[in-house]
Every structure is written in structure tokens, then in C-alpha cells.
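Q: Structure for this?
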Amino acid sequence: MSVSVERMVKVFERPRSLTGAHSTYCPGCHHGILTRIIGQTIDDLGIVERTVGIAPVGCAVFAYRWYRCDALQVAHGRASAVATGVKRARPDLVVFAYQGDGDFASIGTAESIHAANRGENITVIFVNNQVYGMTGGEMAPTTLVGQKTTTTPDGRDPALFGYPIRFSEMIAQLEAPVYVTRQALFDTKRIQETTKAIRKAFTNQVERKGYSLVEVLATCPTNWHMKPVEANRHVAEVVTKVFPLGDLVNRG
Amino acid sequence: MERSVIIAGFGGQGVILAGKILAQAGMDHGLEVTWLPSYGPEMRGGTANCTVVLSEEPVGSPIVDEPSALIALNLPSLDKFEPIVVSGGTILVNSSLVDRGVSRRDVRAFTLPLNALAAKVGSPRSLNMAALGAYLKASGAIPLDVARQAMTHALESEGKGKTVAANVQALEEGYNAVP
Amino acid sequence: MAKRVLMRGNEVIAEAAIRAGCQCYFAYPITPQAELLEHMARNMPRLGRTFVQAESEVAAISMVHGASAAGVRTMTSSSSPGISLKMEGISYLAGSSLPAVIVNVVRGGPGLGNIAPAQCDYFQATKGGGHGDYHMIVLAPSTVPEAGELTMLAFELADRYRTPVMILADGMLGQMMEPVLLPDPVDPAALPAKPWAATGAKGREPNIILSFDLDPEGLRRMNLELQARYRTIREKEVRHEETETEDAEIVIAAHGTVARIAKSVVRMARAEGIRLGLFRPITVWPFPYEPLRALSSRVETVLTVEMSAGQMWEDVRLAVAERAKTPFYGELGGVVPTPKGILREVKRHVG
């Protein structure tokens, strides 16, 4: 059976908002999926010409390379404050901060909470993989109890290092945020759910509704010392017990 | 000619405002002026003071080693600043609160019951303006009219327009109390 | 004709920033610069501009980073302990070639110190302070009117050289009042365009603003470009003032508040027949090495007077070398040297 090329329909391509630059993420890491979802969202909303991305310090430090939009690379933990500055200066821009767990929920704690509390009309993507990937696999604020990292070689002991922080639940206590949700990427259903959440978080901003936060549970096969499939299963079976999925605030 | 005045008293006696009005009046009179407050927690109840310099030429130092005049609204202020007033300078003491006179003999001393003068015009809190009026007369630094306008402007811009009449009366009362 | 108004230094700096076209101001309260913040809080919103009281100094300077990257004139202000916190963001601004104005109304230190006037942050302002090989232009006003003029200039220089610029004031300058003629407002729409800014990649390639290059060769190039810009600044932007130096046998070198006090000392000394002059750096970075070098070959003594333990003194000695004696007189901890105190020091070094 022969198929005519003219009759072939392209069903999948790289979002126009992505540059196609070579990825610096490890095999099996979820950052790549998330990057694609954000690129697709920017395409779908037709906002690439007025979007500004804020890249953090951490594995996503190169995030400015992936998108065909203006971007800043900023100090560790300050992405939400810098996003505040950009957005206040030019309210017509669509501003998103892309931050890891160390950036958003540890060194940037004050900036993260107060940007949310002011109800800044920005979109924050918070990638929670329970480990410091770029610096070599140290403990993150979200590291699970008992989880071994290079700075908790015997596993995280709450008596010494406290418990994994449920930061989105803290943000959800505030009056101002319009959308706070926790999503994951370990199977196609979750990827579809995350896509919807990201779209909503950007749409809220375009519609001037206010602050939206999408926390995404992600894998780090390299520093978890797991194969990608095993890492996916770990998120589904273990991580989601500590960080339950779903909307925490939805005032849209 | 350069004149420098230290106005000192308890926080709440209005020394900062009196200094501002003196500086404003000096500027309105065409002089160069500086106004330097003591600042910080002491403004909320302890002692407060400010230094005003009035000059025909640009003012160099806004802090002065030897002020040409002292307005002491309470005893600690007199104790603290009496020794540094320049020889031949002026010291004005609020005898309503200070139970001693000026001990130096090389200065012009004026002892006036400022609280009583202010109370006499029905505005006991205006003792700072009575003090200012007395200083204007004693020094001849700025005409009374100019100060009256500066005070009106200052009070109105601070949202205290209602107090203008009483404060003007106190200013004049102080002015007239100096022979 | 414009009318003189009596204003505090802090308020004049704030008002000058507004007139310079500052669109976004971010800060955190601290004494002795609170009046600056309050003036902005009262006036920026009614002009349709941005005032945000930030959660911290770190956040405030990061907001400045964002607003500057978006291409608007922006400022933050603080006092010594708060400026220490801003150092992270200042380094990022310098590394990202972003213009911004930072005001330091210096108070006594180190640590919590006190709220009295001081000049003990000179090193921090002029020699780096944050990490990396960078400089800020640092302007040191001596009077309240000059604080306004230099604030206007700070925005110009920041944009021209794409660099953070600091106004190095002190608690006395911030708190005192003097008559000022406020400058005419700049029309923000008439300012030169910033084609590098993050304003949305419409009809052009994306603008990426960063202080980051993992490749040492790349980061070296970025640093060389910064250094080239600093050379241009050193060539073109040195500012200083000399008072009665023509026939001087001794000069005081002082900046800011101390310099204006020293002007009184010049008058007092001249009245006693001492040929005293004053050398006042207006830019403390770039420091006026050449003019001071030239002057030092004509005088016997250059007496540095500071409200510090001798920070600018190091620059003075670099400029003077062995051409003149370089004694030092400093007051610490928020104590302000008085005219008599300075004159006493001058007399120790003449005759």
C-alpha cells in the first residue's frame, strides 16, 4: 500500500514559540516536557511577541534559550520579585517566572510569598523535583523524609532538617492568588492536566485576573539514581503522597 | 552676616516646627538658610532640637560650634547649650518651665514665661510660636510680617489651617514681650 | 520664574527622581531615608507611576532589575544596612548592563550601627561591594540643592552607560532642609529609546538580558566590554570642585556633608591668614585622581577629612603619592566633625 505525501497531515510539531536550541536537561528529566507545554501555551494564546520569561538559578538557568520571547536570567530566588518589576513597568507584557524548588521555596521564600500576597498579575511555574539538580544533588526544601541526597547521605532526618515544605499550600492561604494548583507529568493523563493548568495560569494573566501558581512535580533521574520509568513511578506512588495533586485555589 | 539659632526643648514642644518656620521665613526674606533637626527615636518624647542658619551668603556648615542664639524651652536644653553660645550672643529662656536664669554675663539674656504668654492668647500649645516671635524681636533677623506669612503657609500646608489665628497671636505676644 | 522651596534632602532626591522620569520606585523603610520613601508613596501613584513597598531590600533591588530590564527609569533607596542587602542585586544589574539609580543615605556602622550621619560606606560604594569586577558611578552631593541636581544626572548617566549609579548621601543631608529650585521635569516620552530592553519580541529577535556565561571566553569578553565602558566613564565623567585653591598652602580633601562643613572652615582659616583651600570630589567613583594630582604638586599638605576611619583617604593618597603630606582626620560612629574641630586639625599641619 502506498501513501501519498500530499495527503499526509502533520499532527505534531515543535511549538513555534520554542527555538529548538539543544536541551541541557538530562535524559528522563521532566523539564523538557514542561518547556514544551509552556511553548505550546504561548503559541495557542498567540502571545509570544509580548511575553517575557524569567529564568532562575538552577537546572533551568538556561531557560532563556528555549523560548522565542524576551527573557531575563536573574539572581537565585528572586525571579518573582524581578517578574514584579517587569510587570509593573509594562503591564501589557505577559510575564512568567520559571523556578525550581530551591529557588522558589528556599532562598526565594520571601520574594515568592510576597509576590503572591500582592496578587501580582504574573504566572509562576514552580518545578518541584525534591533535589538540587545543578549543584550536585543536595537536599531541597521539598526533599522527602528519608530521601538520600549528597547533603543528607543517610536520608533526610526531620529532627535535623525539618520536613518537606508544602509551599503551594502556604501560598494557598493568602487572599490574593487566583489560581494555585499542583500537577505532575508522570503519565499522559497528568501531562494533559498540566497542559490545562498552564494554559489557565497564562490565561488568567492575559485576562488580568491576578497571580497564578502552577507547581509541577518533576523527576530527577540523575540525582535520584533511578531510571526514567522508575522515577515516573516514584512520583506517582511516593511523591504524590507527600504532595497531593489538584487545585488548591481556583478563583478564576 | 550669618546668624545661627539652636531651638531646643522637650519633644512635643514644637521646636522642630518653630525651626522650620524660621527657616521658611528666612528664605522668604531672601536669605540663604539651612535647617538641621536632631532626628530619630528621641523625637517621640525625649529632648529635641534643631539648628537654623540664616545668612546673606551660601551656608557652609549647617552644624555650628557657637550658635549666635539659643532658644531654650526647658532646663536640660539650657544646661546643654548655654555654654556654647557665642560671646555677645542671645539666650532666650522659657521661665514657665526653667527655674533658673542665664548664668553667663557675656550674652544678652531674655527670660520670658512662654507657656503663660501662649496661654494668655488661649493657645497653650503655641509656646513655640511665642518663642519664635521673641527671637525675631530680639535678633531683628526677619521682619514680623514675613514670619507671619511663613507660619500661615507652613501650618496650612501641614493641614493645621485652623490653628493659624491662635499661632499668629502667640507669635505677636512673644514679639511684643521683648522690650 | 521658578520659586525656591524649602525641602528636606530626602524629599528633594525623591522629587528630582520623579522629575527625571523615574517610572518605578521600589524600597523598604529604613531611617534616615524614610521621607524619601514616603514622598514617593504620596506622589508616584497619582502620576500613574509605580510605587511598591517591597518585602525586603533584596526584593526591592530585584524589582528594580525587572523594571530596568523592561526599559523604564527606576530607582531604589535605603541606608547602610539595607544597601548591604542590595549588593546582590547591584552586582546583577552591573553584570546585566542595566541602568538604575540607588540612593544610600549613609548612617553609622558597622552592623546595626546607628541612624546618625556617616561616610563609612565609601569602600562599599566605590570599590565594588557586591561580587565581581564591576563599578558603579557614585555621586556624592554636598548640599540639598546639589542632591537634586545629581539625582537628575544619575538617571542620565545610568542610561548613557547602562550602569547602576549610586547617590552617596548621608543622614544629615537626608534630614536637613535647604532652599531649592526644583529642576524642570523630563518628558519620559522624549528619552532615547532602549532597543535592548525586554519589551516584547515583536518584529525583532528576542532580547535576552543576563549576567551569565558559562564559557570563560564569553564571560571574559563581557568583562572586557564592561571595563572598556568604565574607561570611558573615567575619561568623561570625573567631576570635582575646588574652593580657594589658587594660592593654598594646605587643602582639605572631603566629600559630601563634610565638604560643606569644610567650606566654613576655609572662611574661618582665611580670616586668620591661613591659606586653606578645599578639594571636593563630586564623583567619588570615578575618583578625580588627575585634578588632585595636579593640585598636590602646588600645596604642602592635603588633609583628608571624613566621617570614616579613612576610606576616601586611600584614594587621596593614591592621587597625591609623595607630592604632599597626606594627614587624616576622621570622626566615627555618626559623630559629625564641626568647623572648629576641623580648623584645629588644619592648624596642626600648617606653619
